[in-house]
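Section 4.2 – Deliverable D4.2 (structural model, holo form)

The reporting period included a commitment to supply a predicted holo structure for the target in complex with L-homoserine. Inputs used:
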Amino acid sequence: MIQKVHVKVPATSANMGSGFDAVGIALTLYNEIIFEETPAGTGLTIEIKGLGQDTIPLDPKKNMVTEAMEMVAKRNGQALPPGHVTLINRIPPARGMGSSSAALVGGIMVGDALTGRNLKQEDVLVIASQLEGHPDNVAPATYGGLTSSIVLTDTALTNSIPVGNELSFITVSPEIEVSTEDARQALPDSIDYRSAVFNVSRVSFLLSSFFTKRYDRLQYSLQDKLHVPYRIKLIPAGQEVLDAAVAAGALGSTISGSGSTLIAFATEREREIEEAMIETFAAHGISSFGHILKADNTGAVYID
Ligand code: HSE
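Output (structure tokens):
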């Protein structure tokens, strides 16, 4: 029988201010991966629809989706069938919105579906975390919701809580890219004890603010001393845009993942906040585009 597999994976925003490398949220913007088997001997071919057509490799040996598929097939002791892979990309690539996690999680799920369906959600999380190096994007991509994760010696654990529709997430992505590598290099080797305590209190307050739906307190929970002060300088006009979001009515704002996307949180005035952020970038000669999103509480799924 000709095999067809279709997977949909949400965008994610990692860190959430104070939860560096630990907290993340899944958002209602999706990449899709469609695998359709082709005749014997045709190998793997890739087609990209949507974002990243000029930058994402079409060579299956260099593409993150097909690399993850191959890796899982090998783990399952089988070869992938030949097939055509269509990537429908809506998550802005290389902007701190989880495009690489979506590629890894989606590729793992497609590869597993074609070679045995051996993996549980926990396995997808562990494999994807090991490939990505940190779990804060792959966890919400896999489980949906607001996730907090820990890494143990050879595994990772995640708790996910659902987030209601009353909270909106406004993401604004400038045309400039900030590589995760550069953003990690901008961080200091160590921080002082008081900064560590500051972040522990903020991130626990962040999670309890979500549990109790005290979104009015988000501005405090997003405060951070581990990465935002170092990374905001890599995004031209970044601090002004974060401030403009709050001035326009956002409950708080921060860097999404390692940037360059900035994210604001709101329960009203979403359109005005998005416009204020885009206009502030524009006032500094930087074009940007925005999305008004909700939390995705499902995570990556097989379709059909
Ligand atoms: N936690 C990672 C970082 C996420 O901030 O470097 C990368 O998107």
